[in-house]
Amino acid sequence: MTLAAGFTLLVVGVTVIFIARDTVSPDVVLGAALVVLMGAGVIEVEAAFSGFSNPALATIAALFIVAAGLRATGALEVVSERLFRGVETLTPALTRITIATAAVSAFVNNTPVVAMAMPAVGSWSRRTRISPSRLLIPASYASMLGGVCTIIGTSTNLVSDGLLKSHGLAGLGFFELAQIGLPAAAIGLVYLVFVSPRLLTERVPVRDLDGDLRRYTAEFEIMEPSVLTGKTVEQAGLRRLPGLFLVRIERETGSIAPVGPEVRLFPEDRLTFAGVLETIVDLRRFRGLEPVAEESRQDRPGGMELHEAVVSPGSPLVGTSVRDANFRGRYNSAVIAVHRHGERIDSRIGDIVLRPGDTLLLEAAPGFTRAFRDSMDFYLVSKVEESEPPRHEQLVAAVAVLAFVVITASLRVFPIAISAMAGAILMVAFRCLTPGEAKRSVDWSVLITIGAALGIAQALESSGAAGLLAEGIVAAGSGLGPTGVLGGVLIASMILTEFVSNTAAIALMFPIALAAASHLGLDARPFLIAATVAASFAFSTPIGYQTNLMVYGPGGYKFTDFTRVGLPLQIILLLLALVLIPVIWPLGG
Q1: Do 192 and 283 fall into the same domain?
Q2: pLDDT value for 36
Q3: Could you tell me if 133 and 203 are in contact, meaning their C-beta atoms sit under 8 angstroms apart?
């Protein structure tokens, strides 16, 4: 072992330990490790930063924007809203959430897919009194299984594709991995639906809307075109919203209270709700359900956000009704809901006379919080995150852009990087996103993690460390022949992906798998395919994959929950890959 190889292995080992401890973000740890390797002379500066010029990074950044466009227009939400319609028991719910999540994740980055599924799971869980812990881990795992099926399903596949091309090998076909991904997904989904409920215990979610004491009174109006017109309250999904109660409906013929599930909805109906902030915000996502404000709908500017403001004792608003306070002229905002110390306010929004301590939910232009946080009119001002209403009118355009990316990439009309970047540009051009939203949608920490990991992979290769690790894998599996070595690559990649990110795992494993195939004189492709798919099977710990971390808190999980459900699934998929990969991609070339 050379000094450079030994030093590189030491740096990589320390890097894995720091990432596994989860005290510092992976992008910082990997970036620091790359700097150390450059400083020690193990790798030249140009080679170290070559990872940041890999086309996969541009592709991933563009796909973040495409996914954000789908979310901003409500396209993903349309799917999530229909997931649990008419479902009251666990098995059908698991079947729907896992199949839908896997299918969408094959074509959309799985992070926003899981983010959109989580509110639907939470709402259904509160309605049925079945813990979300029974569904959230399966949803996360299903997104990983779906992501393996196409080249754009996960950043792991894109990084692998870029590495293949950089080493003079044929890149991945759009559906090439589906040959192993579809069987893995089918077996995995059956496991998640029928086995995982026996392994997952009831957990109390960390965040429960029913425990939120901030109950607002809000008023919304049905405006055409609306998805609610002609439906009953039950059919519209307004009866069992979590933490929300439909108090009354006002129309020209009079007021309806209490509101029964069979009451049919019509244009210009005014609906008064009492409930928690999060669900009040969600009401804005129903197409054609608009918050009532004193000015006409046409007078209200676009791009409005929600902000909370607490009325101070010395505020000129005290003793004034919402209608007379002239919020539009005074603050360039409109009051859409009022919270008063847990009381239910029976007045219409415009008639509410404000008191000190009232919390107002305001629809205001961006920058409202910055402009009025020091105002004597309010105790406290804060923006409600992710409160922008969906751009439903651009929904068809967003879906068309996704179809363009998938079709042009799968038919090889353009390279995947060009298709993805064109899709990102079209999302902005069709006003599915603003340029600012497009920039904010890119997770730069993911790109830094990938770029730094690719640089470290270069160091592993150039220092000879990858060859040493490959020799170890070959020696360990030599007793079982090439299939044993393939199993060693699969196991090593699965273990590594549990402690570093999936993209870092494939970047680090790629040169090792390449060297292992070279030692045996075999075709490298099946070994590289094995490393690629195994890097996405991060089921045993919550830290191995970002969607696992997303569901960790909301599901109230313990670390061992992931191991209990995920480890058997990993073993099943390991055996499946050992059988199928040599058949689909023969080891001898």
Answers
A1: no
A2: 92
A3: yes
